[in-house]
Amino acid sequence: MNSSQRSGITQGSGDNQTEHTLTNTALGISSIEQDDGDRTRYVRDPEGRMLGMITGGQRYNAATDAQNSTLALAEDGTESTDPDVAYDYTPYGQTEATTAGSGGAVAGSNPFTYTGAYELDNGDKALGHRYLSQRTHRFTQQDPSWQENNLYTYAECDPINKSDPSGLWVGCAVNVTGFFVSAIGYAGAAWPLAIAIGTGGAVAMPAFLFGAAVIGVGVGVYGIATAC
Fold first, then answer.
1. Which first-to-last residue range defines the signal peptide (predicted)?
2. What is the pTM of this model?
3. 42 in helix, strand or coil?
4. Can you tell me the distance from the alpha carbon of 185 to that of 211, in angstroms, rounded to the nearest whole number?
């Protein structure tokens, strides 16, 4: 089990606490057992996307979108156009579930909603190493990898086009890389130029060093412009 996989989740307080025991595999959480002994199993494809769930002896097939958010759950053998549960989301993952028939109980057995993340009772999402707050639309912990310009930002403030299921977004890392490339390029360019000045001669700047400097400046400026 890696550091982002939880063995259990406890919600509530005092006498109202509920405990869920999680079974993890390389593909993600495969089952959840509640404190009353009821167990729900989750079927996933080789990439970890949820294909369906089995609860109360009945299988429900899942439909997901490009960001792995669950769109619907339909009882196996029924029309997918008339699901038991249909989900809608705001850009930052506020979830609204529309149920039909026994869909209320089905929705209660499926915590995997926005981007396939585990949704807590208060709407917060467990995204790998961190939690995304439903109230602030930001992570509640700093980026442990220190790769973001803003250590609490979710998906570079662009949740429609980007997602961060691990809580370790690396998109901003390219901005930092740009400055390092720029520094290397300038250092390399300054070396032959210093020789030329010191000797009174003419030393041509290597083309690749000049190119590295230009690329570094471009990427670095882009990083500043896109930081959120």
1. none
2. 0.70
3. strand
4. 8
User: What residue segments make up the domains of the chain, in order of their start?
Assistant: 8-145, 173-226
Torsion, Cα 30 102 72 77, to 10 degrees, reads: 80
- Asked whether the beta carbons of 69 and 109 are under 8 A apart, the reply is no
Helical pair 207-226 and 173-199, crossing angle rounded to 10 deg: 140
Q: Which residues contact 163 (CB under 8 A, 6 or more apart)?
A: 67, 68, 115, 155
Structure token pair of residue 94: 């506020």
Q: What six digits make up the tokens of 99?
A: 């149920």
Place of tokens 């471009």: 218
Chain mean position to CA 157: 12
Helical residues (DSSP H) of 29-172, grouped into ranges: 103-108
Average pLDDT over residues 64-81: 91
pLDDT in tens, 86-98: 999 999 999 999 9
